[in-house]
């Protein structure tokens, strides 16, 4: 998987005139590849069992 993560600050204003600064995160995937024989994933699943 390849892509990028971005964040930005914004201000949320409530009905009682309180303003809160928050952060929004965005994940963009530009390439997603399916791997049929993923030995690492099998090892993790066996360890958790």
Automatic annotation (TrEMBL):
<protein>
    <submittedName>
        <fullName>Single-strand DNA-binding protein, ssb</fullName>
    </submittedName>
</protein>
<keyword id="KW-0238">DNA-binding</keyword>
<dbReference type="GO" id="GO:0003677">
    <property type="term" value="F:DNA binding"/>
</dbReference>
């Amino acid at each position: 998987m390849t892509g990028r993560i971005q964040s930005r600050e914004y201000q949320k204003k409530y009905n009682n005139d309180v303003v809160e600064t928050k952060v929004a995160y965005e994940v963009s995937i530009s390439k997603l590849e399916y791997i049929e024989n993923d030995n690492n994933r099998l090892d993790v699943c066996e360890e958790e069992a």
